[in-house]
Amino acid sequence: MLLYINSSPISRSSFHLESLAFIPQLGLSAALIPLALAKKDLPRTMLAQTFAFVTFNKVCTSQYFLWYLVFLPFYLPSSSLLHQPKLGLTALGLWIFGQVFWLQQGYQLEFLGKSAFVPGLWTASITFFLVNVWILGIIINDIGESSDSALDRKKKKS
Prior knowledge:
Blueprint: H1 2-6, H2 22-37, H3 42-55, H4 66-69, H5 72-75, H6 80-83, H7 85-110, H8 117-157
Helix pairs in contact: 2-3, 3-8, 7-8
């Protein structure tokens, strides 16, 4: 929203805070996640990277969600989202709710021309972001735990 508001010709801000929005995205998707997880499980790490990139992107459009769908077959079979159906259904329900809430507010703004920034779009954006961060945490935790359990199995065989 800050990027959208500051794009106005009457915006007088000399310090453009929105130009720093890439730092968490770059830090997570290009450094922290790959360095911490890539040696444990590369395809699932690529899902976490892509999910983080989309979640922390300062521009959000629905087609970005397609970017990480290609990695789901590598992740889902051993994920806690499938092994714990209550968790999986909660995550799916919250993700769908968050996206529908966000899209509805975007529709109000872009197609109907209504000023939906506050509280609608702001609340929807924060809600959807927090849901995505929570799901990203589940994905990262699953990658770490699956590699730890694989190490435990190898130790037991030795």
